[in-house]
């Protein structure tokens, strides 16, 4: 049961649903791009993921990383696979040509990392932050830093980390204590300890570029006083910097990835961006990482689904209610409705998630290269709006799909030898790191929905409504009507929360998760409607394939999309009964009594 890259589905999503080649050709930076080139790149990426990275997945999980005297050894084969990754030019895929990159669309980078994550999540953690670090330095690094580091990062010769978390400061970055003292040479000296640093030490590259949040001596308290610094493992003269790995974590999943504790002892560093504006610079990297994590959830779900689908067709148990002619005494469990539903739900969530992730990747290209300034701003707004949804919703869906894939295996899925349980373990971290899903919900509702008088959600709802109205009088008119109703209710719920929070400030915090999930379902419903309309139009070309797409869309609207009804009930109930206020008051009184 090997990983098979979903190339046909990528072609359907990018070429037929999103019409990405046409959209990209309209951008001067990608004027020569076409569907043939797109598929050539995806085929090569899929081949690398399936043939080079995937075979190391189970063995890397069993072996894990080794730590000895400050050095980390990655699982057998990881370093060789990474060398081939760099030889193939994959780190530089979407980097600018002036930095040695290939200058290809970022939507292809999104597809590449879905396949890599599906093939081997632990291995993919090492190059996973490369493009975010590249984008951060390109936007905020000084000319000297860009000249010294961008080419090395773009090529993958040097890997990068994001050093935020400290033992006492997880989500609240304002509590960070790592200090930066100005040096006589125009640089800085960092002192402090960081934890949970993915790839903080390893044997894949000679140098590692650490991007570190720290506080200058005269910095304001809280997150506004943070600055961003670049501190390499090896200094320009080749000597070792004052950065020591003090240990690695023993984890539930992604065991092939070295999650390190780092100590900075007067480490030489250089300021990135402006002093006191470190979070603004770091958010370039963090937003890229959040999109990447959403794609991780999608990739893991795809890999787990492939395994459960294969198993369901091999495993024979009992007689199915509807049996094919000439069936044996026992049927494949795939024919039993209970298992068939498990498989279809996975498919709907995965293929819908792929459409949403690729649309987001396309927004990255449009926001960067559209020749119209107003259009670039509109694409950026859409990107900011959908990023927390992609991160939180797709990772939650990924974990659910991995769980359902294990369920298909029954008791055999709970056994390590089946291999399916690794996907469940690996997927769980995606809901936690790069800003937990709860934080994504709060960021989404407070900053992306309620801010700016709801301008960004209005724009998103308008996109959904435009495609839903295309279905009037057609085979998917009923599903389009459901979308229109949900879009209107989402708009009204946001308006009601905005009013309610004036008297109950805790209201949006209680409803943030529900509002993000509602938007996620609306986004997937939107994508499935677009897919269904395209499938109907192309039905005669390949009836078997496009009928499958049409049936998957029908299944999504019949069995998955109705989850919005329960979510709306929660939102409406809280708005009408004042439950968050009651709970907050009781919690306040309980805290006073405990004090």
Termini Cα gap? 57 Å
- Overall geometric form: globular
Q: Give the biggest sheet.
A: 7 strands, mixed
In DSSP terms (H or I, runs of 4 or more residues), the helix count works out at: 20
* Helix/sheet category: alpha+beta
Radius of gyration: 24 Å
Number of strands: 9
Weakly predicted, low-confidence segments: none
**Proportion of beta-strand residues:** 5-15%
Mean pLDDT, rounded to whole units? Answer: 94
Helix content: 55-70%
Q: What is the ordering of alpha helices and beta strands?
A: HHHHEEHHHHHEEEEEEEHHHHHHHHHHH
Describe this structure in words.
58% of the residues lie in helices and 10% in strands. The protein is α+β, with helices and mostly antiparallel strands. Among the domains are: 7-138, Butyryl-Coa Dehydrogenase, subunit A, domain 1 (Orthogonal Bundle); 159-281, Butyryl-CoA Dehydrogenase, subunit A, domain 2, CATH 2.40.110.20; 450-595. Strands 3, 4, 5, 6, 7, 8 and 9 form a seven-stranded mixed sheet that branches. The chain has a two-stranded antiparallel ribbon with strand order 1-2. Strand 4 and strand 5 (188-198) form a beta hairpin. It is globular.
Please outline the helices and strands.
Layout: H1 7-17, H2 20-25, H3 35-53, H4 57-63, E1 66-68, E2 71-73, H5 78-87, H6 106-119, H7 121-124, H8 130-140, H9 143-155, E3 159-163, E4 179-182, E5 188-198, E6 208-215, E7 226-232, E8 243-248, E9 259-272, H10 278-314, H11 337-369, H12 373-409, H13 420-428, H14 437-449, H15 455-470, H16 477-500, H17 507-537, H18 543-560, H19 563-577, H20 579-594
Parallel strand pairs: 3-6
Antiparallel strand pairs: 1-2, 4-5, 5-9, 6-7, 7-9, 8-9
Helix pairs in contact: 1-3, 1-11, 3-6, 6-10, 6-11, 8-9, 8-10, 10-11, 10-12, 10-13, 11-12, 11-17, 11-18, 12-13, 12-14, 12-17, 14-17, 15-16, 16-17, 16-19, 17-18, 17-19
């Amino acid at each position: 049961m090997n990983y098979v890259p979903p190339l046909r589905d990528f072609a359907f999503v990018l070429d037929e649903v999103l019409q990405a080649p046409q959209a990209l050709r309209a951008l001067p930076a990608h004027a020569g791009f076409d569907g043939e080139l797109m598929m050539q790149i995806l085929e090569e990426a899929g081949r690398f993921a399936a043939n080079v990275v995937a075979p190391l997945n189970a063995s890397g999980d069993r072996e894990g990383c080794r730590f000895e005297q400050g050095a980390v050894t990655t699982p057998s084969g990881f370093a060789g696979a990474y060398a081939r990754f760099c030889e193939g030019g994959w780190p530089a895929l979407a980097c600018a040509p002036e930095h040695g990159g290939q200058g290809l669309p970022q939507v292809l980078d999104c597809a590449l990392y879905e396949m890599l994550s599906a093939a081997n999540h632990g291995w993919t953690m090492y190059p996973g932050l490369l493009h975010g670090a590249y984008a951060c330095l390109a936007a905020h690094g000084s000319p000297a830093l860009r000249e010294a580091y961008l080419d090395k990062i773009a090529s993958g010769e040097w890997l990068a980390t994001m050093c935020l978390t400290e033992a006492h400061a997880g989500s609240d970055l304002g509590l960070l204590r790592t200090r930066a003292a100005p040096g006589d040479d125009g640089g800085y000296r960092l002192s402090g300890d960081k934890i949970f640093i993915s790839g903080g030490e390893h044997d894949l590259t000679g140098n590692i570029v650490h991007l570190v949040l720290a506080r200058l001596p005269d910095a304001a308290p809280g997150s506004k006083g943070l600055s961003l610094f670049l501190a390499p493992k090896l200094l320009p003269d080749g000597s070792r910097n004052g950065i020591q790995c003090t240990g690695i974590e023993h984890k539930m999943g992604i065991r092939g990835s070295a999650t390190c504790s780092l100590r900075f002892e007067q480490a030489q560093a250089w300021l990135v961006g402006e002093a006191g504006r470190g979070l603004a610079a770091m958010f370039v990297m963090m937003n890229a990482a959040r999109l990447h994590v959403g794609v991780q959830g999608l990739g893991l779900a795809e890999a787990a689904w492939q395994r459960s689908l294969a198993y369901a067709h091999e495993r024979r148990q009992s007689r199915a209610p509807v049996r094919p002619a000439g069936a044996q005494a026992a049927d494949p469990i795939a024919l039993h409705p209970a298992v068939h539903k498990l498989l279809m739900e996975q498919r709907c969530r995965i293929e819908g998630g792929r459409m949403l992730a690729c649309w987001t990747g396309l927004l990255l290209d449009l926001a960067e290269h559209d020749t119209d300034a107003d259009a670039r701003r509109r694409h950026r707004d859409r990107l900011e709006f959908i990023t927390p949804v992609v991160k939180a919703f797709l990772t939650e869906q990924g974990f659910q799909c991995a769980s359902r894939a294990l369920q298909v295996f029954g008791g055999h899925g709970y056994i390590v030898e089946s291999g399916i349980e690794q996907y469940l373990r690996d997927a769980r971290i995606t809901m936690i790191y790069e800003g937990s899903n709860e934080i994504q919900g709060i960021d989404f509702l407070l900053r992306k929905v309620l801010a700016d008088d709801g301008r960004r959600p209005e724009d998103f709802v308008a996109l959904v409504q435009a495609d839903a109205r295309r279905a009037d009088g057609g085979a998917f008119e009923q599903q389009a009507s459901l979308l229109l109703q949900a879009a209107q209710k989402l708009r009204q719920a946001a308006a009601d929360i905005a009013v309610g929070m004036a008297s109950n400030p805790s209201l949006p915090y209680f409803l943030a998760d529900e509002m993000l999930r509602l938007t996620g379902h609306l986004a997937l419903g939107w994508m499935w409607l677009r897919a269904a309309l395209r499938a109907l139009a192309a039905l005669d070309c390949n009836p078997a394939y496009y009928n499958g797409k049409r049936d998957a869309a029908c299944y999504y609207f019949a069995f998955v999309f109705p989850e919005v009804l329960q979510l709306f009930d929660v939102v409406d109930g809280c708005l009408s009964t004042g439950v968050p206020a009651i709970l907050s008051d009781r919690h306040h009184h309980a805290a006073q009594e405990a004090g």
